[in-house]
Each structure stands twice: as C-alpha cells, then as structure tokens.
C-alpha cells in the first residue's frame, strides 16, 4: 500500500473510532490531516471531511440502532432541524472567511470541552 493510502486509511480509521465512540467528532481529526497529508485547502478539507463523516455516522447509527441504544422518535426533530441547518450552512460556507471559520470552530470545540469536563451529568 502506498504511503499516502496508508495515511488516509489510518486517518479514516481513527475518525471512525472517534465518531463511533463519542457519537461524532471525527471531523476534528480529519480536517487538519486532509490539509497536512492530502494538501487540501482549508475550505475543501472541511467539505471533504463532511463527505467522509456521513457514511461513518450512518454506520455508527446502525450499530447503535441494532443494539437498541438509538431512540428514533427523539432524534427526528433534531434531524429535521439539522437538515435545514446543514443546507443553510452549506450554502453560506463558500462566503465564509477561513480565519473566522477556524476561530468559530475553535470556540465550539472549547465550549464542548468545557461542558464535557465540568458540566456533564
């Protein structure tokens, strides 16, 4: 296996583990690796990360469903809102300055980390 393919496979595997274990978050790993190892520009790395994470989320959801841990009725309102938000975000994404996107992403990660560390029940 070529070195580039090996790096991609390991990155994808790590993103899958993170996504399956935490219910999301594999993109936090993929975006910097797509930039560094694949040479993608930031905007393309963010977009490509979404395309990689989608099947991983579907697989993780199927596993949770088969184990009886997924509450579909509770997920539906979030799915509907997320669909609208995803469409809006995808349309607005092209016009966002990458510096502000990085800063917003960093703030989101910090917020989630602080909540997980200090306010989790």
Give an overview in words.
By secondary structure, the protein is mostly helical. The chain has 5 helices and no strands. The chain has helices at 3-22, 26-38, 42-66, 72-93, 98-118. The chain is globular and about 40 Å long. It starts with a helix and ends with a helix. The mean pLDDT is 86.
Write the layout of secondary structure elements.
Layout: H1 3-22, H2 26-38, H3 42-66, H4 72-93, H5 98-118
Helix pairs in contact: 1-2, 1-3, 2-3
Count the DSSP helices. 5
What level of helicity do the residues show?
Answer: over 70%
Instruction: Return residue spans where pLDDT drops below 50 for at least 5 consecutive residues.
Output: none
Describe the biggest sheet? none
DSSP strand content: under 5%
H/E element sequence: HHHHH
What's the pLDDT, averaged over the residues?
86
- The dominant shape is globular
Concise overview:
With 121 residues, the chain is mostly helical.
Tags for this model:
83% helix; mainly alpha; 121 residues; globular
């Amino acid at each position: 296996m070529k070195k580039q393919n090996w790096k991609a496979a390991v990155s994808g595997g790590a993103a899958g583990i993170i996504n399956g274990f935490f219910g999301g978050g594999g993109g936090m790993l993929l975006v910097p690796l797509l930039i560094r190892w694949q040479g993608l520009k930031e905007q393309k790395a963010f977009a490509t990360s979404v395309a990689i994470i989608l099947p991983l989320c579907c697989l993780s959801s199927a596993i949770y469903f088969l184990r009886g841990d997924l509450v579909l009725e509770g997920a539906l309102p979030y799915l509907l809102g997320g669909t609208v938000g995803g469409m809006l975000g995808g349309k607005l994404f092209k016009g966002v300055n990458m510096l502000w996107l990085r800063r917003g992403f960093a703030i989101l990660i910090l917020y989630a980390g602080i909540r997980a560390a200090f306010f989790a029940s």
